[in-house]
Design brief:
With 149 residues, the protein is mainly beta. It contains 3 helices and 9 strands, in the order E-H-E-E-H-E-E-E-E-H-E-E.
């Protein structure tokens, strides 16, 4: 299978909250469309310094990560970011890669949006079992049955 890319919209979620509270206008919300490599080997969304600057995302913490060549480095974690793909959205944080490195869409946001890689078409798609909304697995949650309350 080849490399899979997806068209995403990244939005500064802090700006969304400021607009909701009427501190800024909707037109002031920082957002951008990007192309990301779908990388199931990465856990998080990984953006580059240019994206962080353009979205004006604040530093939340420093975290160590292992890159593709096995090197352990310390990365900035920024956010929150609202990430949109087709009719799906998730709220996440992102690790910042240096320079203009490729944006990576990792396993956690993929899982949260309930999207899958279609191997034959070599593209990211909305889960066809749940086309209208994301469905999450809650295996550990046991809801009481109506007659056992």
């Amino acid at each position: 299978m080849g490399l899979i890319y997806a068209e995403l919209e990244l939005i500064n979620a802090g700006d969304i909250e400021l607009a909701r509270r009427h501190y800024i206008g909707e037109e002031e919300i920082k957002r951008m469309k990007v192309t990301a490599l779908v990388d199931t080997g990465a856990y998080m969304l990984c953006i580059n310094e240019t994206v962080q600057e353009q979205l004006d995302l604040p530093l939340l913490e420093m975290r160590k990560g292992v890159n593709a060549n096995g090197e352990v480095r310390e990365y900035r974690v920024v956010g929150p970011i609202e990430l949109k793909f087709k009719n799906r959205r998730t709220l996440c944080h992102a690790m910042v890669l240096s320079g203009d490195n490729e944006i990576l869409l990792g396993a956690i946001p993929l899982e949260d949006m309930d999207v899958i890689i279609h191997p034959l078409r070599q593209e990211l798609i909305v889960n066809p079992d749940h086309p209208y909304f994301a469905q999450m697995s809650l295996k550990g949650l046991r809801e009481p049955k109506d007659n056992q309350e």
